[in-house]
Amino acid sequence: MTPAQTLQHRTDGPDNAPVLVLGPALGTTWHMWDRQIPELTRNWRVLRFDLPGHGGSPAYSADSADAYAERLLATLDQLGIERFGYAGCSLGGAIGVQLALRAPQRVTSLALISSSPRFATADSWRQRGVVIRTNGLDPIARTTPERWFTPGFAAAQPAIVEWAVQMVRTTDPGCYIAACEALASFDVKDSLDRIGVGTLVMAGAEDQVTPPAEARALVAGIPDARLAIVPGASHLTPVEQPGAVTDLLIRHFTTTWQDSAAGPPAPAPVISPVPPQASAVAELESGAAAALRTDSYDTGMKVRREVLGDAHVDRSLEQADDFTEDFQNFVTRYAWGEVWTRTGVDRRTRSVITLTALVARGHLEELAFHVRAALRNGLTPAEIKEVLLQTAVYCGVPAANSAFTVAQRVIREETTPEDHRQPREENEPHGN
Fold first, then answer.
1. pLDDT band of 299, cuts 50, 70, 90
2. Same structural domain for residues 57 and 146?
């Protein structure tokens, strides 16, 4: 990893004190922790960092919580920091979970604020990426206060509200979209029992983004976890209720550091489950053995959901019966598991090819949700327009005319900010 791909950071507090790392939420900078610093630096060397493309940090995007954790560990390695406590808010909490799973011998204790085992739905995060590609970050920035703060706080603190809006507005759009992808793919429900450090889970009582129920799910899954609900707080709890958050962090990290004063226990080995046929596969050297190592159905289902969206795929599978079930399995295994997963061209290019083929054959129902998929795969409305103009030359003007009508409707639906969007028809055709 190059120095440029480590994370922009700053440290405060005594050089010889134990290290406490504070992780930011999506769309914020390390300044979201400013009001915790005076008290925390009495006993800790506090390290704060910016996500890529946030604040003044270089725009080397990362698209998974694990990738952020890897960059943070590289940053700490550069600074000679081996062991540390960690507190993170929202996306910063997801990074903390990955740190505890990836480097359990280095994390002394953990605090997860406004966090969840899985943040909303993958579709909702990818939809946000589509809106940003089309409209920029301004629509997201303008709706930030209602997601981050309670109405009373927002009305009483207009300067903080404006600060929040400007933080989001000045974030690099590509890095924000990549962070949305990181949240779309984050799902640690089945891994929480591997977190072996004392964990404080904190939630704002009025948080609508990650409600207290999400915090309770974390506590239920992590073996040594306790819950704190902060009254009068929404999603950006450290900003809205700084005193309460600071007190909770001091008590938690003071206790856990005392508990670990004797030194870290030897890390327990992580034993991955052995899939069926693993021993047989290991003994074979032929190409057929390599084919046994992956299940094209599972791979295909993952890609199908990423491209078409969970809601669409769920509706298609729910409508399957004895007559159509085998066809759904066939499509998942061969179209999505064998073709869409090939590495010869990227998903953007595959979307261009698919749109062209569907226009040429007049499959307008399929075209509708593949326009939606193309937006999720990174094509902009302007690029989709160019694809359809090209089809007018080679597939015929009437075919392209019908395609423009379908694509225009879908693009309007998908690029409208969430708070102005009309619900999609439940009887929308289901394709593959």
1. confident
2. yes
Q: Residue 411 has which token pair?
A: 């693009």
Indicate if the pLDDT at residue 7 is higher than 80: yes
Q: Is residue 287 part of a domain?
A: no
Contact 256, 109 (CB under 8 A): yes
Q: Report helix, strand and coil shares of the chain as percent, to nearest 5.
A: 55, 10, 35
Residue 337: domain span: 320-415
Model confidence over 43-84: pLDDT tens digits? Answer: 999 999 999 999 988 999 998 999 999 999 999 999 999 999
349 in a structural domain:
yes
pLDDT of residue 244: 95
Give the count of beta carbons closer than 10 Å to the beta carbon of residue 170. 15
Three-state DSSP state, 232 = coil
Phi, psi of 268 (to 5 degrees): -75, 145
Torsion on CA atoms 230, 218, 114, 172, rounded to nearest 10: 170
Q: Reply yes or no on whether the pLDDT at 91 is more than 60.
A: yes
d(CA 58, CA 43): 31
Cβ–Cβ < 8 Å for 197, 97: no
CATH number for the domain harbouring residue 139 = 3.40.50.1820
CA distances from 396 to 34, 371, 389 (A): 60, 19, 10
Domain containing residue 399: CATH number? 1.20.1290.10
Q: How many CB atoms lie within 10 A of CB 399?
A: 19
Confirm if 123 and 311 have CB atoms less than 8 A apart.
yes
Whole-angstrom distance between the N-terminal and C-terminal Cα of the chain? 39
Q: What is the DSSP letter of 230?
A: E
Q: What are phi and psi of 227, to 5 degrees?
A: -110, 140
> Does any domain span residue 227?
yes
pTM: 0.76
**How long is the chain?**
432
Which residue matches tokens 């605090």?
111
User: Contact, 170 vs 141, CB < 8 A?
Assistant: no
Amino acid present at 272: S
In a domain, 74, yes or no: yes
**Residues whose CB is less than 8 angstroms from the CB of residue 316 and which lie 6 or more positions away in sequence, other chains included:** 328, 430, 431, 432
